[in-house]
Amino acid sequence: MPNNNLMLAIALGLLAAACAPQIGGGELNSGPDAGQGVTPVAPAICDEAVSITFEQRKVIPDIMLVLDKSGSMGDPLVNNNSTSKWDVMRTAVASVVSNNGDSVNFGLMMFPWTTDCRDGEVRVAPQINGVGPILQEMNSTSPNGKTPTHQSLARARDYFDSQPVNPDGRIVVLATDGLPVCSSIGESVSVIQSLLQRDIKTYVLGFGFGNVDISGLQSMATAGGTAQVYSADSPSQLNVALDSILGDVTVPSCDFALTQTPANDSDIHVRVNGVELGRDAANGWSYDESTKTISLLGAACEAVKQGGASGIEVDLGCEGTIVD
User: Fold this and answer.
1) For residue 7, what are the contacts with CB-CB under 8 A and spacing of at least 6?
2) Maximum mean pLDDT: which of 36-45, 145-154, 253-262
3) Taking CA 262 as the corner, what is the angle to CA 259 and CA 267, rounded to the nearest 5 degrees?
């Protein structure tokens, strides 16, 4: 999975075309044979282009890992293997949080908590580089109890309701090895829908289901706005599933902060992959003078998110002398 959230320093080519005079400009023809017209002047060009750098803003969403630690998670993932599903899950979580800890605020909830059907409890608040606290919590507990899925999702919803909204996104990742036991699938679907109404998607990961029917999980995933269940029946599949979820959640920003202030922002021109974009157009760009930030919009933004915008150019006007 590409790391789409690293700060990117990209050289911006200054386009010589911006140094051309305004359309309709020219020079009065004053010779003996002159009429009253205007003689066009060849476009002027810059003799020098000065590179400018900008930084792509980091997008850092909140992800609450809601992990099933019911008694069945203590069973081996594979027959004749002593490694439990919980141990495999702990190793996979450690890997994904370590690899993405500087670009995601990871939090941890485990369920049930203390008794069979008690809802889960947030043990680690979403934070950058939280692998240490998360592993400490996972190492200090062991699988037990039943599967209070909808109660735990409701607790995750209540937690997010009590915190400031992260504009970079809020996500729930539910990882479970079984269907709800302490409640119905319908109740879980209802809570997941209430999360989505808050613009909080729920990703559903079925772990160690084998050939068991996962249509109940599918209905939960559909309610969560993610369309599909992520399924894993081995350590490698679990790692792939978690990486796939992270790849869907962590997308590049469409905001680019300039390192210097343009002398006149009306002279700014922006190109993506060689195509000039309109300012404030549905699929163009905008400029925030207070933050010196150019934001790509609509299709241009989608191209960046999909990795299809390899060349971004911004013209800030002529930096060198004019060559007639």
Assistant:
1) 55, 56, 58
2) 145-154
3) 135
Paired residues of 74 in beta bridges: none
189 bridge partner residues: none
Q: pTM for the whole thing?
A: 0.75
> pLDDT-based confidence at 272, cuts 50/70/90?
confident
> pLDDT tens across 147-165, in order?
999 999 999 999 999 999 9
170-200: buried (b, 16+ CB within 10 Å) or exposed (e) per residue?
bbbbbbbbbbbbbbebebbbebbeebbeeeb
Q: Which fold has domain 62-249?
A: Rossmann fold (3.40.50)
Tokens matching residue 137 = 């919590």
Note the pLDDT tens digit of each residue in 90-102: 999 999 999 998 9
Domain boundaries, the chain: 9-56+253-323, 62-249
Residues 170/160, Cβ–Cβ less than 8 Å: yes
